[in-house]
Amino acid sequence: MEYYLKKNFEVEAKNTSEEALKKWRDAVWLVKNPRRRFRMVADLDKRAEADRKRQDIQEKIRIALYVQKAALQFIDAVRIKSDYKLSDKVRDAGFGIEPEELQSINRSRDAKCLDAHGGVKGFALKLKVSLKEGVMSSNVPLIQDIYGYNRVTEKPMKPFWMFVWEALQDMTLIILMVCAVVSVGVGIATEGWPKGMYDGVGIILCIILVVVVTAVSDYKQSLQFKDLDREKRNIMIQVTRDGSRQSVSIYDIVVGDIVHLSIGDQVPADGLFISGYSITVDESSLSGESEPVNVNAKNPFLLSGTKVQDGSGKMLVTSVGMMTEWGRLMLTLSEGGDDETPLQVKLNGVATIIGKIGLAFAVMTFVVMTARFVIVKAVHHDISKWSMADALNLLNFFAIAVTILVVAVPEGLPLAVTLSLAFAMKKLMNDRALVRHLSACETMGSANCICTDKTGTLTTNHMEVTKIWICDEAKDIGSADNTGNVLESSISENALSTLLHSIFHNTNAEVVKDKDGKTNIMGSPTESALLEFALLFQGDYMAQSKKAQIMKVEPFNSIKKKMSVVVALPGGGHRAFCKGASEIILGMCDKIISKNGESVPLSEEQRKNITTVINGFASEALRTLCLAFQDMDTSKSNADSIPEDSYTFIAVVGIKDPVRPGVREAVKTCLRAGVKVRMVTGDNIHTAKAIARECGILTDDGVAIEGPNFRDKSAEELQDIIPKLQVMARSLPLDKHKLVQLLRNEYQEVVAVTGDGTNDAPALHEADIGLAMGIAGTEVAKENSDIVVMDDNFKTIVTVAKWGRSVYINIQKFVQFQLTVNVVALMTNFVSACVSGSAPLTAVQLLWVNMIMDTLGALALATEPPTDELMQRPPVGRNVHFITKIMWRNIIGQSIYQLIVLGILKFDGKRLFHLHGADSFSVLNTLIFNTFVFCQVFNEINSRDMEKINIFKGMFDSWVFMMVMVSTVAFQIVIVEFLGTFAETVPLSKELWLASVLMGAVSLPIGALLKLIPVSSIECPRHHDGYEQLPSGPDLA
């Protein structure tokens, strides 16, 4: 079986090829209900059509831009059309421009028409918006009424009746319905009204029950996925409203909003550039052009859905929602659905194999029963006499054969994966993890390596300046009064002024006031910490800084590891400020600021002293930043270019970023679970090692290396280093990408990697599971990830791993349970048909059993919450057998017991239970049916744990499981005691009820005994890291 599955039903968790997707579809055979089975599977034809549509739209956008650019070369001036008139609706609302005009100008990038309207300021005036204060919240409803909402038209969700209709498309159910209708007609003709209709009506009622329960389950899943999909698209945007900077949902953006953009952001709507520095935008998602576009005052147009590659700035929103090109394009993005997960594909293969076996048994059962019937007629010399009753018997044989097929083809297997994943995704949302791709949830259960960032993931990301070295002195930073007194008494006013101006000028953060008038700092944690430190000092340094004109800004990025700015000083001249990674800034300096604030040459001894200070701060787990400045000679240099050397060193700043509570325990949990944790950070190696030790990541025999050294190592040297590598500091995004590639390809590890920056996108995409940070992460990082960690917390990553393992184990439990039911139901009916000529389980009874093992079984077992024990076993390997030897042991053992019990009841039940009288045959068959159902009920409890004897642990905490158990037993009582007319059962005595329950309950001790049987397994190999893999299988029983 495993060879067949591997050959035909093997797909990658990420970036699966079109050939692999087509291959397993071609291998699937005997699908009862394609519309339901493949509802959560990608529609390749629709996807191809959507790709064609998307390419057409991109081509039109690209051509329109080229044509417009060419046309504008020959137009000297443009004036607003003389016949341009405002509609009454727009005029009455007090606005001065139509939505279509805004859309047209931005879409065609018509700069001359923009100028004719008065430019960005003219647009703001016509939209009744202040470029400084932004939109007033009280005006938002009116603006949305005129200019629309920032929402893309979504396909309406399928109504409930459509799910009922899809459930009815089951081929075997349709055949059974036809049989039932014929049975009613023939029955009434032979047995009269109403007795003749009972068999047929019973089947129809059972089919209706199956369809309704199936439809309800599918509908609830669909609602969950709809909510999750909406959450995936919800992006928080920084805007200025009511005079204050605030964060709003992308869905709440309106025309006229002032939006703040920075590296990695998605442009949330069409708009115009107001101000900013070095903004370049990637428009490939919209136009297909890979060349980045520079956005500035000359080319102010920004299009929705594009990504900011570099720089920062502000934009005025001019069009939203379906008025943008992105809105039209988004309609095609969801066409075709997501790729199916490896487990879904594998279980389609299992269903195909079992379906073939089931079909063979169904055909054999029908042939045997029909042959016996014909032979009996021949023996009694009635072969030439055929009546309606005979036709009804043959019809019943056929109905039983079809029902065996219904039970045999486990249509619910692939859908159980979807159910389990939907349940896990919903729970993970509550645990602050947003799963963007279904397959990531199950792949995370196999992860044996996590490459994690330090800042914000292992640490709190709540930073505070606690130390500073300036003018040859190191100072501890305390309260505002203490800090001011200590620094002001030890350094000159000139030196302090230079330090504070270097912070206020060279920052991306802003000091803003919220609605309550409270002062807040908006920006990255590092920038905020520096600004908080600078604000401790009395004086008007910030006000003075605002007077200086900023000429050029080079924003921080993870490659250069520094941020620079050139300002025009009020008294004349230009000054460059630079801050960033300590060793990089120190290397750019040849002078140092003295106590009186003057620039003096930097000696080698001072350089060594500063390096010692940096390492000392870092060893105390502080992030270190250096600040520098340079007075530029405007006669020799260009203010538009920022110098790369000859700076004056100002200070070393030590920033405390405490380790998150619970991270050390979470790392221990990972190590116990066979998951190695590696820290990959851009920080100083001494800081990284100190934090890694505090977290329990770096051990005495572990290796810590810097990015430049890692890049310079040969392949042979890396083979010795990587198994012991625990910390990589001063790394570039490309280093992280290279590490992930090596771990996956050379060491066959299943790698999860975290990332927050735009440049982390390649590593996130390359990893088996890409984990983007929800708070610190850019939209580019999130878009390339599989899971978004909403609280940026490492503990949440461990929770995701636990749920991933839970999904895999839950599906294995369900498969074990369903295969046991399949084996027993098929063998019981087939053997009985061969020996006695009749099947003890009727069509109605088999339909009820099918619902127990399919929909209800999946609901009970596939939604079990994870336990802590899951993180005390090794991760699931890449190429392990899905149906393990442990599962086969349990399936075979339980099947043998149930077949023996049902066989004894069938052939010796009357004698054992002293059944006499006219109804003894009906009582015996009802007893067999009741015992069979209770065997499944108790086996379902057995299946809660495939290895441990205590299967009751946590059972009463799982309300879904308990609800399914109670409802199954309750409905079984109703069927036996009250629906006998339709289900062909008779009420049982208390003694027979007790016997049925006890025979079913014996499954529990049988299950315990089976778990004591050792299962031979291949010897655990040693891991490439040197440690032995954790015990599995019976060792954990």
Automatic annotation (TrEMBL):
- In its keyword annotation, does this UniProt entry include Transmembrane? yes
Q: Where is the Cation-transporting P-type ATPase N-terminal domain?
A: 116-188
Instruction: Give a single Pfam family match.
Output: Cation_ATPase_C
Query: What UniProt keywords apply to this chain's record, in alphabetical order?
Result: ATP-binding, Calcium, Calcium transport, Calmodulin-binding, Ion transport, Magnesium, Membrane, Metal-binding, Nucleotide-binding, Translocase, Transmembrane, Transmembrane helix, Transport
Which parts of the chain span the membrane according to its record?
171-190, 196-216, 353-375, 395-424, 886-905, 920-938, 959-980, 992-1013
What CDD domains does this protein map onto?
Answer: P-type_ATPase_Ca_PMCA-like
Assigned EC number? 7.2.2.10
Quickly give the catalysed reaction.
Ca(2+)(in) + ATP + H2O = Ca(2+)(out) + ADP + phosphate + H(+)
Q: Name one GO cellular component term.
A: plasma membrane
Q: Name one GO molecular function term.
A: P-type calcium transporter activity
How the protein sits in the membrane? Multi-pass membrane protein
Enzyme type, top EC level: translocase
> Subcellular localization, per the record?
Membrane
Gene3D superfamilies in the cross-refs: 1.20.5.170, Calcium-transporting ATPase, cytoplasmic domain N, Calcium-transporting ATPase, cytoplasmic transduction domain A, Calcium-transporting ATPase, transmembrane domain, HAD superfamily/HAD-like
Family membership: Belongs to the cation transport ATPase (P-type) (TC 3.A.3) family. Type IIB subfamily.
Q: What does this protein do?
A: Catalyzes the hydrolysis of ATP coupled with the transport of calcium.
Protein name per the record: Calcium-transporting ATPase
Species of origin reads: Daucus carota subsp. sativus (Carrot)
